[in-house]
Amino acid sequence: MADFRAILIEKTETGSTCVLTRIDEAALMPGDVTVRVSHSTINFKDGLAITGKSPVVRRFPMVPGIDFAGKVTHSDDARFRVGDEVVLTGWGVGETHMGGLADMARVKGDWLLPLPRGLTAAQAMAIGTAGLTAMLALLALERHGVTPAQGPALVTGAAGGVGSIAIMALKKAGFHVIASTGRPAESDFLKDLGADEIMDRAELSTPGRPLGKERWAAAIDAVGSHTLANVLAQTRYGGAVAACGLAQGMDLPTSVAPFILRGVSLLGIDSAMCPPALRSLAWQRLASDLDLQRLAALTTAIKLDDAIASAGAILAGKVRGRLVVDMA
Fold it and tell me: CATH homologous superfamily for 129-268?
C-alpha cells in the first residue's frame, strides 16, 4: 500500500511527541469507508492533543484532527460510493481513532455526512466542529424558547472559532449581539461579523457576585470557569446560557441563585457525539444561514506543514477565527 503524509503523536516516558511524517495505509485503524482528505482544521482540542497540554489523546500512536472533509476512495457502506464528497466532525476521531490531519483517513460510515449542499470542502472545514458547536448552541437556545424580543445575546471568547461563528449565527437569527473578547484590536473584525457591542472579557473573567444586573437574555459561552459563572449571574429572568467550552477552565464557581431566583437555564452543548439527525439539521442551518463572504473573512488557510506550529498559537488565543488545513 502507498504511504502518505500524517501528523503522528507518539507516547513517551515524559509525555508525547508530535511530528509530521509518512505512514502506510495499512497503519490506519478499522473502518468501512476510506477517504482522501482534502481539508482539515485546527480546533482548540487539536491544539491540546498536538502540544500534549491535556490528555486528549487516549490511544497511541494517534493522528490528530477531529475534523476533515474529502472524497471517498473505498467504501463497504452502501450509503457512500467512491467519489462522494463527505465531511466528518467529532466521534472521538483524533482522540481514540486516527483523525484528519493526514492525507488519508479510514472511519465508520456512521460518522460521515455528505458534504452539505452549497458548501465546498474548504468552507465546511472553515465551519468544522467550532461552527457545528455554535449552531447546536443556537438551536438549543431556540428550543428553549429564547427570542430576540427578550433581549440581547452574549458571546464569550468571541474572536475564537466558536465565538466567531456564533456571532454570525445569532445575528442572522435576529439578536442584538454582545461580543466579549480579550483582544480589543479585533473589535472591527467582530463588528464586521455582526457584533453590535464589544465587551472587555475582564468584566467577566474574575470572581463575581452570585447575582448581578440583568443584561442579556441568551448567551453562548466557550470559556467556562468564572466567566460562565458571571454570565449566568447577569442573565435576564427566564433566559438561557448554552455552555460549550472551557478555555478559562473546567470549574464553575457559581451558586444556585441564577437558577432558583431568576429561572435561568444552563444548556450543555456537545458536538462530538451529537446524534446524526440533530447534526444534520445543524449543518443544514449552517449551509443556509452563514454569510460565506464573512466566513471567508474569518478563515486562514495553512498547509499541513504548519499545523504543529499553529497548535500552540490557538491555545495561546492568538488565532483569529478559523484555521483550515489545505492538504493540497
Answer: NAD(P)-binding Rossmann-like Domain (3.40.50.720)
